[in-house]
Known about the structure:
Strands 1, 5, 6, 8, 11 and 13 form a six-stranded antiparallel sheet that branches. This protein is an alpha+beta fold. The N terminus is likely disordered. The longest helix is centred in the C-terminal third of the chain and has 18 residues. It is built from eleven helices and 26 strands.
Amino acid sequence: MIVKPSFLFLIRRMMMLPRLLFVCCLLLFVCAPLAIVCQDEQVYDGKKGTLVNGWQNWSWAKVNFASGDVAPPSGDSFSISMLVSNWTALYMHNDQGVLTSSFTALQFKAHGGSVGNQPLLIQLIVSGNPAGSYVDINAYGGPLQAGKWVTIAIPMTSFNIPASTPATGFWLQSNTANDAGTAYFDDFVFLSKPLPPPSNITVTVMPAPKPTYTLSNMLFGINWASAAQLAANKYTANRWGGNAVTRYAWDLDVQNHASDWFFEGIPNPIADESKLPYGTSSDAFINTTLQAGAEPIVTLPMIGWSPKDRTYRWSFSVAKYGAQQKTDPYHTDAGNGIKTDGKTDVVGNDPTDTDRPIDPSYVVKWLDHITEAFGPDKVKYFEMDNEPGLWSSTHRDVHPAPLSYDELWNRTLLYASAIKAKYPNVKLMGPVPWGWCAYLYSPQDGCSAGPDQAAHGGLKFMEYYISKVAEATVSSTWAFSP
Length: 482
């Protein structure tokens, strides 16, 4: 339910947060009678080559905000250059935030440099966290063209975040691990004026083909829902997942946050460490989910590493591995694993600085603990790690080599066999791909067909994986849910 704010409430909000503009649906009521000018929000000034209106550069891509490599549009002197590669992003942050409902679109100009067709996704950020949906810029004015500027205009509704939510930033992220060349950007602006109406579209609704199928109610799930969210929305499944659980130490309650936060192993708060492994955050998550009548989906680590103790540790010590592009402002010895040139990775670090090696027996012991704590078959669904296709970037401190067809399947078979041998009734799910490219190609090949695919009969990545699951299901006593 959306509660409409009162007029007085809106006035107070304007006085307290002057940079947050009013909801657009109230502009006729508020702006006109009070003679308030509802303006566009400029983000970047191409004449000066700087961000404006409180916007800051938080990028982790190689960027230059005063680039003169290509002739900028609109008589500007500069544009923003970005090397599109390795999932990096052009990230612009604003402490005050902008109220998304006050604007109709985020618009900017883009240039593909000498290459063009760079794969880029854009997403809004709320309080430092990605929110809503990734948007492919190709759908709103792309693709980027070599030697030419194009205008990208993305309706705010396409980002799928609540209208009352202030966005504290946005990022343009490379959608490939490969080097896709340098792209250029200018004229970033949040538009307060309506976009032109779309062209007439004819939609034909066809009868559903027979036979029809019943969808599982497990589709109505969520990631990391609280007790209040589960109660309010009646979600059927609640997932313990994400980058930080690939290296979750269930017996210590420590998560390594990998490239999301300086490759740090951060202990979760716990009331009584002497009672470990009871009372952990994962125990609390499972209990909350079961109490709400939903099914927990628990991600099992399969990468082979896990935090070694409850000491706060990080993988790329500045003292040990040298100066780096960025450091944790609260732990200044913790670097981001990129050298000061902003593009060269620190390599050859010691994984045991933070982690210990683990094997399938460690994961089976976690299921032993879950069974003891909650009862047999109370937790039925388990995922085989999280986004293994990104291990070589997100978790490159312990797994720097890109994943291959064989490694993914061999790890899956090794861990799944050990789990099914003791817990035949659990449902195993995998391999939890990160995106479209991961369905088709292995990270070893990049985002196109290559030697790894050729060595596996030309089958697409997931096609090969599913065929191996089918073979294992037929030739053994366990079943696997891809």
